[in-house]
Design goal:
The structure holds two protein chains of two kinds.
Chain A: E1 2-3, H1 7-12, E2 16-20, E3 23-28, H2 32-41, E4 43-47, E5 52-57, H3 61-68, E6 80-87, E7 93-103, E8 106-111, H4 116-126, E9 132-135, E10 140-146, H5 150-154, E11 171-176, E12 179-184, E13 193-199, H6 203-214, E14 219-222, H7 224-233, H8 268-277, E15 281-288, E16 299-302, E17 308-317, E18 324-331, E19 340-345, E20 348-355
Helix pairs in contact in A: 2-7
Chain B: E1 8-9, E2 14-19, E3 22-27, H1 29-35, E4 38-42, E5 49-50, E6 55-61, E7 65-69, E8 74-79, H2 82-85, H3 89-92, E9 101-104, H4 108-112, H5 117-124
Antiparallel strand pairs in B: 1-2, 2-3, 3-9, 4-6, 5-8, 6-7, 8-9
The chains are: A alpha+beta, B alpha+beta.
């Protein structure tokens, strides 16, 4: 199993380690609920060094990415990041990614840990241009600092940049403790914050600095457990749950990043046809109206009758919203708000209702 | 980690404590730590007949659902309603306020077959 540069730090902090996507990762330190609440109310620190970093470079880089990703790469400018996805020819999701533009010839793709090797091979195999694809996943660590106090914590540590004025989905190249870092105002929790890309050899020092300096801000190391409950409340999809190669991007709620009018890209033809024929399914949010918790894979039925209309993609009872909730992929005919459904959970069915997403939205300052 | 005296333990990480012929049942400090923060307890119905090693109820963390097995054969005479609103009682006070059910009609022979605190402590290595 692979370990991030912060493995020893996690053990020292008393983390419970689990296997995730071939990595030995902290699932929790003090406890999922306390960590979740710390991110909503103060600030949390996540080791996300398992995420992959793939560069696409050269004079053809922009052209290559326009063809390989579904969002409009030409809308990016230097220092701007964009949520996007790699699609297969059926319009299914190979992976969801963030594309960072450093220059018109230099782009960084942040990809899911579980898909990093697959994505790298896929990008090389489908690249029809002279762009160079480089997998630097093992050379980078990543630390996510998330929560309402994240910016005040990190800002004084970042050299020569005013972090407070950095807008969402923008990034800068800077230094922390003399190490070059990429500071991106992005995250996966529904809170304000940054994700720091740090060279593998410097990750431990930066992590320790953030913990030490962050003590007065209530900084809390957080594991994958809280990361999952936070992202679910914010209705951020997770590959392997909401997103999969077998589910088209239009069904799984990624329609807003699929630019069918931008010109050709992999998956476009299938999605154009699907849109003309009518998209059969939709990702929806639900809450349970009876006691219980629905989990990934639980079957969704019509409120009356036995007809299966979908499947739960993620579900739990989350700390901030404090309801048994989840997301499900259901037939379009059952996707309207307030539609009553039933979820089959361990031998019985539980009443559920379609509700708006996200479940949680942070207040504007 | 604490495994109090006066309690009996199972290798499935439940405990029982006898009180006026009724067995109070819960899960151990080790079990709650392994499960993590609990957010839901699917309590059995009062009057339900349970058998030793059979499923007693289900406890759920944010991540997963886990079966709790009955340490003894008997009948559920009371369930801990406080767990409906606060499943975290099991995490915070597993041996007292975090009890799950009370069983009647249990046999002395079954109780004698359960583990002492020392035996259980040796099992979990804490």
């Amino acid at each position: 199993m692979k370990r991030t540069p912060l493995y020893e730090e996690h053990l020292r902090l008393g983390a419970k380690m689990v296997e995730f996507a071939g990595w030995e990762m902290p699932v929790q330190y003090a406890g999922v609920i306390a960590e979740h609440v710390a991110v909503r109310e103060a600030v949390g620190l996540f080791d996300v060094s398992h995420m992959g970093e793939i560069w696409v470079t050269g004079p053809d880089a922009l052209m290559a990415l326009e063809q390989l990703t579904c969002n409009r790469v030409s809308a990016l400018y230097d220092g701007k990041a964009q949520y996007s996805a790699l699609l297969n020819h059926r319009g299914g999701v190979v992976d969801d990614i963030i594309v960072y533009r450093f220059s018109s010839e230099r782009f960084l793709l942040c990809v899911n840990a579980s898909n990093a090797d697959k994505d790298f091979e896929w990008l090389k195999a489908n690249n029809r241009t002279g762009a160079v694809v480089t997998n630097e996943s093992s050379e980078w660590g990543q630390i996510a600092v998330q929560g309402p106090r994240a910016i005040e914590l990190v800002a004084p540590l970042v050299r020569d940049h005013d972090l407070a004025s950095l807008k969402g989905f923008h990034f800068v190249e800077s230094e922390i403790l003399g190490s070059s870092v990429i500071v991106a105002r992005t995250g996966y929790t529904g809170e304000d914050g940054v994700e720091l890309f740090v060279r593998a050899g410097n990750v431990v020092n930066v992590w320790r600095l953030l913990l030490e300096h962050g003590a007065s801000y209530g900084v809390t190391p957080c594991g994958l457990g809280a990361r999952d409950s936070l992202r679910l409340e914010a209705a951020l999809p997770l590959h392997g749950h909401e997103l999969a190669e077998e589910i088209t991007a239009l069904e799984s709620g990624l329609g807003w990043i699929v630019k069918l009018d931008k010109g050709d890209f992999i998956g476009r033809d299938a999605l154009v046809q699907l849109q003309q024929a009518g998209v059969p399914g939709k990702l929806v949010g639900f809450v349970l109206d009876e006691a219980g918790i629905a989990r990934q894979g639980d079957i969704v039925r019509e409120a009356a009758g036995e007809l299966e209309v979908g499947v739960v993609t993620s579900g739990t009872k989350t700390p901030t919203v404090n309801k048994a909730l989840g997301m499900a992929l259901v037939s379009t005919s059952c996707a309207a708000l307030d539609t009553h459904l039933r979820v089959f959970v361990r031998g019985r069915t539980i009443a559920a209702r379609v509700v708006p997403l996200p479940f949680y939205k942070r207040g504007r300052k | 980690m604490e495994f109090p005296e006066g309690y009996k333990y199972t290798k499935e990480h439940e405990w029982i404590k006898m009180e006026k012929g009724v067995a109070i049942v819960g899960i151990t400090a080790f079990a709650q730590a392994e499960l993590g923060d609990l957010v839901f307890v699917d309590l059995p119905a009062v009057g339900k007949a349970v058998t030793a090693h059979g499923t007693l109820c289900v406890v759920e963390s944010t991540k997963a659902a886990s079966d709790v097995y009955s340490p003894l054969t008997g009948t559920v005479v009371e369930v801990n309603q406080a767990l409906v609103d606060d499943p975290g009682l099991i995490n915070r006070t597993p041996y007292t306020d975090g009890w799950i059910v009370k069983l009647s009609g249990v046999s002395e022979a079954d109780i004698a077959g359960l583990m002492s605190p020392e035996e259980y402590k040796a099992l979990v290595g804490k």
